[in-house]
Amino acid sequence: MLLGTHSAFAQDIDIYTGINPAGGNVPTVLLVWDNAANNSASAEEICTQYADGSGAPSLGTATAAGMEQCAMVNALHALRSDPNLLGMIKIGLMVFNKNDFKSGNGQCGYLVHAPQLMDKDGIDSLMAKIKAFTDTGSSTIKTNSVAVGATMAEAWAALNGRSASCSGVNYSTLAEVAIQCRDAVLIYIGNAFTNSNPGDGGDADAILKQELSEVFGYASGSNAYSLFSKPIAVPLLNTSGNTNNDFWADEWARFMKRVSVIDSTAADKNVTTYTISVSDLANQAQAQSTINYYAEMAKQGGGKSFLVDVKDTDGLSNALFTVFNDVQAKNSVFASATLPVTANTQGTYLNQVFVAMFRPDDNANPRWYGNLKQYQLGLDSGNNIVLTDSTEDPDTGAVTSKTNPTTGAISPEAVSFWTTNSPGVTDWPSTGFWINSPSGEGLQFDSPDGDLVEKGGAAQMARADNLTATYADSSSDNGRNLLTCDSIGGCGSGLTEFSTGNATLMANASNLFGVGPTSSYGASLSAGEAFKVGAAECKADNKSCTFVVPFADADPGLSAGDVIVNELKTANFQGACALSSGCTVETVSASAFTFTVKGLQTGASYSIPDGTVFYKPDRTVTVNSSATAHGLSVGDSAILKNCTGQADGAYVSGLSALPAGSGRRNVTVTGITTNTFAFKWDNTALTLPSAAVNCEVEPALTASNLINWVRGWDIAGNEDMAGPGAPVTVRPSLHGDVLHSRPAVVNYGGDTGVVVFYGANDGIFRAVNGNQDGDDGDISGVRPGGELWSFIAPEFHGKFKRLFQNSPLIDIAGVMDTNKQPKDYFFDGSTTVLRDTRSTTTASTKGKTYIYMTARRGGRLIYAMDVSDPMQPKFLWRKTEDDIPELGQTWSQPKVAVLSSRTDPVLIMGAGYAPEQDADPVASDDSMGRGVLILDAVTGKVVWGALANCSGVDLASDGVCVSTGAPTDAVAADVTLVDRNSDGYVDRAYAADVGGNIWRVDLDPHGFGLASTPADWKITKLAALGGAGNDARKFLFAPDVVTTSGFDAVMAVSGDREHPLYTTDTTAGMAYNVQNRIYMIKDTQTGALMITGFTALTHDNLMANPDQTLSFDATADSVKGYYIDLPNDGEKGVNAPVTVAGKTYFGTNYPEKPSASSCTADLGIALAYTLDFNTGKLDFTKFVGGGLPPSPVTGLVNIGEETVPFIIGGSGPTTFDPSIPEIELSNNRKRAYWYAK
Question: In what residue span(s) does the PilY1 beta-propeller domain sit (predicted)?
């Protein structure tokens, strides 16, 4: 059980684990076992005793059935000693329902053992059931009929607790079968022998069509009905043009995995299908059609396929155990989420609402989908302001809301701007881009995109613009303007291409990416040396690909013309060695070398399952694959697998019945001693191109492959959602997650219009055409939603290898993989815009537009770029810990400010986040981020800093750094700027730190616009509100400040957003146990400079929890402020408070306590609070869907002829819903500083 557990070092993404720690909510696995007569196929003596020592399998020690019986028992026995699986998974067993071993009407499947929790008692129960099977008598488990598809239908009914089923069994009475809150997993163990026939001869297709029409309501001929009833082509078995005969298991697997269960009239959950083919690998080709069928079931079912030799009991039990671990990991991590909202900040806003999105990978893989979408505001028939989509026109009348009040997300039928099913590019699939991964309201189409992150929006425009890109040497050849710097610290104003045509980038590949050229083996190969079969080098033209092995001219022990052809799949030579990972050379001669493999017999021929294709340098093989599909460029390396076809030439021994068949080469045993044998490769002479060998291509991880993958080429072979196939080359995951980054929006006006700048955790910072759809929305030929350019910082180059491989898993709560690593971040912080349109200024920023990019957990760095021409970005400067040693992770957004004492604008920010804060509770002092920084906006140099450590700071010519009186805790939050005298210049700033302190910085100390220097600026601790133990409050978000005639009201909410989960651990200081609060602090020092000797306010100076039922005047001189306890256990502030019309809005979250009856993924309870800071009156509503609500956005928007005030994310019911705040017409309060752009 995971009850009350979480990582001691956490992040806010832990909340998206979606773990419901209730014991009854563990993942469910149903084993479906092929008990047809062909499982009696004879095999040599393989399993003579179960792993627990209880005897031999009852179905025989030399049969496939006995081997499979033994492997299942052994896999279950192994669960006992695995703490990550024991009691953490349910397993059941189903077989074909025939003969006297049956249930119901004897049709379809028989649920022999309902899914049961695999604690020790459960394991013993299922093992005993399997051990008791017999192959004799009237109750033999064996059947003469195969019912793969019909049994899949039965499994669907059983796993969903249906009252009606193909067999007639009522599964609703078996409570333990229902899969409760989780999707289930089916593992089909199928026999694939020469006499196998995986067809049904039953009604699997009719049952499926009945399910589609009667339960899901899909009309015959409708898109959904046609999609799920269409036959699937399987090589060597059937083609999509026939009636599909009896092979409907793969179509059932597709339906079970991909159908939208919200359309079902029953309480259905999806099912993922894995398959394990048990076959005699020595005669595999004769069973290849069946193997292909089982592999297609897994492909369509979203799982994995395994191929196991009938003699390999350990191979089958290991495959089962692999799936058990996979299932437990999949069902322990991540629920979907969407955030945040940003609006076009141009005074009175343009009616454009941009939503940056992300979807965590449900397997905890590091590659997450993301997107940027655009919506708009409108007034409904009741004159309420709502969020609506591209299909409505708010300027001409009432609109409808496109938020979902049930889920808290966007409505499924919503169509965001830019989203279309006809993007106007050649080769766009008429059947939809997602034809192989249908989901949501639109199934295989992008529109409507609804709440699906990957569909529509900027992501679709990027896919469309790079649909069939060839990824040649330069951006001009594929249309994507992807830029970088060639080395860390090596940026020039003219950025360089991130492409294989960048010679400097390619030359530094091993340092930048951690990948290099393919290794080769030369004449130094000798006895006792380990060797690994590596990738072959490929030279490509437009129609075929020719592979040459990169051996040195000196022969490594192979005679001229010798060929090694092996398949890259399994290597189970009884554990001796695998060619893909390395074997040891035992003897070497001029024409042969030997190594040891166990468990073989003299005089027999055997297939070698793992490896690549080796040829002498003068030998080549042609791969019949179009250049646009095989994913290779000239000079790339690749691995060949699954090779089929007839090659010219003869085997020397004459033993081969299948020349070059199935990608294997036969070998002749030349000698044997105690389960070992020596062999040499048979000679063959290939004459090409008279006979071609057809192969799949698996690109090696080289610099060129990695660069092209980053650019968008689908060549890694591990996409979670499959694309449409040739001629499309773009990968579906082209747009990564936009997690914490709040996009910045600039209205350039004129012919340009709106541009959106934002970073994503695919490593790419983007500039996107933010205009709405229309003929006049293009920017220099780039359509609305299209990418103008993108940028990759060289600090991030080394992180792409992990994204390419999509491994190792993310270190997140609930993931038990020992190789897990923290999630990688890139430009994950918010972007700041400086746009200086002042006509009278003498500042060097006049007429310029600059952007400033921060990384949050992505690093200790800030990048600045000149985007005055939005099509031609120029590098401006970068600052890291090398320039400011105290700089932490750049969480704090640099705020643009104009000071009365300086000509050029400055940036004001906190010094950053310290990794010591990741511990829960915090165990050591912060080592970085301790202070407040003011940077020159043009040069990045430090104008002023109040830092715990001032050594090594890169100061401006008049710059000052003070450490006396500076913060000693990290300042990760944004800094709030205030123009108290309304002269257009910032007078002071307020900052909050992770120690619970609030600071005031005075920047106009003499007042009245009198000249000052950085040496005159001063920092003072205004309030000390933290402490030890459960008083260890943190501020991770900026305070809000409202100036009044007699004081500045400073509102701040404490909370550790980075530790969002529930725990039963009562250790003082853990985030769940800390008492968090909303504060209103009165700063009564309204002059230009804080008085000398000011003592910071503490809780003793503040009123505690004002009585909500009584009248209270917080403006009274006797009141110095107040605080209100957040009322729920574990509740914490998770966004920045915003005040509008006398009301302060902020959001919180607290975790729900686990409930065995709950089927809601625990995103916690999210509350929207409204505080009247004058009276202390606090109200709240609940955000639907929970999660971490983004900071509210307020402003004025033009809707038709009206100017309407709004706040998004202020009061719900969803975080997307806007409302109209009640404007309080009072002259004694005004807003803090807003920089005019």
Answer: 823-1003
